[in-house]
Amino acid sequence: MSSIHLVLGGIRSGKSAYAERLASDMAGGEPVLYLATGVAVDPEMEERIQRHQRRRPPNWQTLEAPLNPVGALQDQSQTMEPPAILLLDSMDVWVSNLMLQHEGTPRVELEARIVGAARRFADYVREMDHAAVIVSSEVGHSLIATTSMGRQFQDLLGTVNQAMAAAADRVTLVVAGLPVPIKPFAAAAG
Q1: How far is it, in rounded angstroms, from Cα 176 to Cα 12?
Q2: 3-state class of 185 per DSSP?
Q3: What is the per-residue pLDDT across 134-163, written as a single tens digit (0 to 9) for each?
Q4: How far is CA 156 from CA 34, 95, 113, 166, 188, in A?
Q5: pLDDT per residue over 61-98, tens digit each?
Q6: Eight-class DSSP state of 84
Q7: How would residue 24 be classed by pLDDT, with cut points 50, 70 and 90?
């Protein structure tokens, strides 16, 4: 049965490690397909990617999908065993990649393109009856960026996160390594 669990958190909040544990638990020993959006553009990013790779169990499959996760999944659907769980890490890197690919595109058009791509991913997950864990950075708690491109990224990611949270069955915010359920809302005590 398809379900989407969005995991949000700040940089170094523990969101990826939490999402990996969650995907592993949800898969119950079945295959997990890790959709990797990161690109090793410099040594620091290369180390970050390697750290994520070292944490993954050896039976997980990795599919590089820096620009088009749906297309990557469609291309691999004939050659890969259907996974129990999809884990997309991360939505914020994907948004950044798309912004750089479409640099110079008018702001309104860029937002429509990127939000549309995120919605198509959620629709694809539902259509293919996959369960998915999606990781993204929460930008709502950060300082306003000092550059125009930084502010545009924050605005776009905030809009994408809202769209994904609306599509998700569950949303968890990870703060200092601790998962805080956001959706569905916890019943009030008392």
Answers
A1: 8
A2: coil
A3: 999 999 888 889 999 999 999 999 999 999
A4: 24, 8, 10, 15, 32
A5: 999 999 999 999 999 877 877 788 999 999 999 999 99
A6: S
A7: very high
Interatomic CA distance for residues 135 and 144, integer angstroms:
21
Q: CA 91, 93, 97, 103: dihedral to nearest 10 degrees? A: 90
- Retrieve residue 7's tokens: 């995991």
Residue 13: exposure state from Cβ atoms within 10 A (0-12, 13-18, ≥19):
buried
Which helix (H) or strand (E) segment is 105 a member of?
A: none
24 vs 5, 85, 93, CA distance in Å?
A: 13, 8, 22
Which residue, 66, 74, 50, is CA-closest to 125?
A: 74
User: Among residues 52, 102, 130, 141, which one is catalytic?
Assistant: 52
Per residue in 95-130, pLDDT (tens digit) is: 999 999 999 999 999 999 999 999 999 999 999 888
DSSP state for residue 31 in the 8-state scheme = -
CA atoms within 13 A on the CB side of 15: 28
The percent of residues above 90 in pLDDT, for the chain, comes to 71
CB 33 within 8 A of CB 57: no
How confident is the model over 9-20, as a mean pLDDT?
Answer: 95
Establish whether 5 is a catalytic residue.
no
Note the Cα 134 to chain centre separation in Å. Answer: 4
